[in-house]
């Protein structure tokens, strides 16, 4: 019988995508190796955090998930956690794109302290791993992954109207809104399309762009995205976006929907240009990719099938489960 060990993941958003795709997705695989996963909320107030720290002290290993805790909490966590790992999927030393994607002195200091205090570091991509290496760590790259169901993808909707999808949150909606000129050019050219935005707020576009907003819900987002012909994944190129782990690209490709994506960070690896979608380095290339997918349904189907197969092989939970379990076991050994 495999000895049971408790693995606690500390997160300020226990139900959020980071925990869902980077830890809960591997719950069964970890359990098969004798590792019981427990996600522990990291509250905002110090009194409530003490309870989380007490729970952490009872675990065999604690993963601090994408959180830059203050020095006092870090020292307390380090004293109480038998083994401590840091897992991150954002360029945490930097401010986000809305704040200029500049390096923050406070965030950098906290990032360095957590790296120094951790027994293991798990990074979501090579750009993030390089940030950890700069602080003297030897990180293990564990990418964000998605589930890919068995068999072929469900067919795209039968419609002469191009249904274009985007999925994300209010934090990333500005990246889509920055493509208003591209979408406006389609309207001006008489192109018939509808943009489906799956998010927690409506996008702000100039009048005339045909858009529908569906609220993001765990139970409905997949069906909403499946009801599109292809997807968009625009990003500006800055240190914050280079650290992104490309979840929306993987979600669309896994459903058999090709993607027009900015060739920024990990997206340049996730989308194989001309084989699973189109990579774009500027607005003109972005527009060209959209027009190609609008005009050729046979090509959309071919690219979508290839994208789904590629995600299953390179970016799926199934493909990465053995490596995630091995990385956790090596850290706890």
Give helix % range.
40-55%
Write the CATH architecture name of the largest domain: 3-Layer(aba) Sandwich
Assembly of the depicted chains? single chain
Major β-sheet profile: 6 strands, parallel
* Helix run count: 15
CATH topology label of the largest domain:
Rossmann fold
Q: What is the terminal-to-terminal distance?
A: 18 Å
- Count every beta strand, where a strand is a DSSP E run of 2 or more residues: 12
**Top CATH class of the largest domain:** Alpha Beta
Which shape, going by the Cα principal axes? Answer: globular
Enumerate the spans where pLDDT stays under 50 for 5 or more consecutive residues.
none
Look at the structure and give the mean pLDDT: 96
Overall number of structural domains:
2
| Fourth-tier CATH superfamily name of the largest domain | Glycogen Phosphorylase B
The chain-level structural class is alpha/beta
- The ordered string of helix (H) and strand (E) elements is EHHEHEHEHEHEEHHEEHEHHEHEHHH
Strand order of the largest sheet: 2-1-3-4-5-6
Radius of gyration: 21 Å
Strand content: 15-25%
Protein described:
The protein has 333 residues and is of the alpha/beta class. It folds into two domains: 157 residues, Rossmann fold; 153 residues, Rossmann fold (3-Layer(aba) Sandwich), CATH 3.40.50. A six-stranded parallel beta sheet has the order 2-1-3-4-5-6, sandwiched between helices. Strands 9-8-7-10-11-12 form a six-stranded parallel beta sheet, with helices on both faces. Strand 11, helix 12 and strand 12 form a beta-alpha-beta unit. Helix 4 packs parallel to helix 5 and helix 8 crosses helix 13. The longest helix is centred in the last third of the chain and has 18 residues. The protein starts with a strand and ends with a helix.
């Amino acid at each position: 019988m495999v000895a049971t060990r408790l693995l606690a993941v500390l997160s300020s958003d226990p139900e959020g995508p980071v925990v869902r795709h980077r830890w809960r997705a591997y719950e069964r695989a970890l359990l098969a190796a004798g590792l019981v996963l427990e996600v522990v909320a990291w509250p905002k107030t110090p009194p409530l955090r003490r309870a989380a720290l007490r729970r952490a002290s009872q675990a065999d290993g604690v993963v601090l998930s994408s959180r830059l805790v203050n020095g006092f909490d870090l020292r307390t966590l380090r004293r109480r956690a038998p083994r401590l790992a840091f897992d991150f999927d954002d360029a945490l030393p930097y401010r986000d794109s809305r704040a200029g994607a500049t390096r923050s002195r406070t965030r950098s200091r906290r990032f360095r302290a957590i790296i120094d205090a951790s027994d293991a570091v798990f990074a979501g991509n090579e750009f993030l791993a390089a940030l950890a290496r700069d602080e003297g760590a030897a990180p293990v790259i564990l990418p964000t992954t998605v589930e890919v169901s068995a068999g072929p993808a469900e067919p795209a909707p039968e419609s002469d109207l191009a249904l274009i999808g985007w999925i994300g949150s209010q934090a990333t909606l500005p990246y889509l809104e920055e493509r208003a000129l591209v979408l406006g050019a389609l309207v001006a050219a008489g192109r018939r399309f509808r943009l489906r935005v799956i998010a927690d707020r409506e996008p702000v576009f100039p009048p005339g762009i045909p858009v529908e907003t569906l609220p993001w819900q765990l139970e409905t987002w997949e069906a909403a995205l499946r009801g599109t012909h292809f997807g968009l994944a625009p990003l500006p190129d800055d240190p914050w976006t280079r650290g992104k782990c490309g979840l929306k690209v993987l979600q669309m490709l896994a459903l058999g929907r090709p993607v027009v994506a900015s060739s920024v960070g990990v997206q340049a690896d996730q989308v194989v240009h001309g084989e699973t979608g189109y990579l774009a380095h500027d607005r003109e290339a972005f527009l060209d990719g959209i027009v190609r997918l609008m005009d050729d349904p046979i090509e959309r189907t071919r690219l979508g099938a290839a994208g789904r197969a590629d995600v299953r092989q390179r970016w799926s939970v199934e493909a990465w489960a053995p490596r995630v379990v091995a990385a956790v076991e090596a850290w706890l050994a």
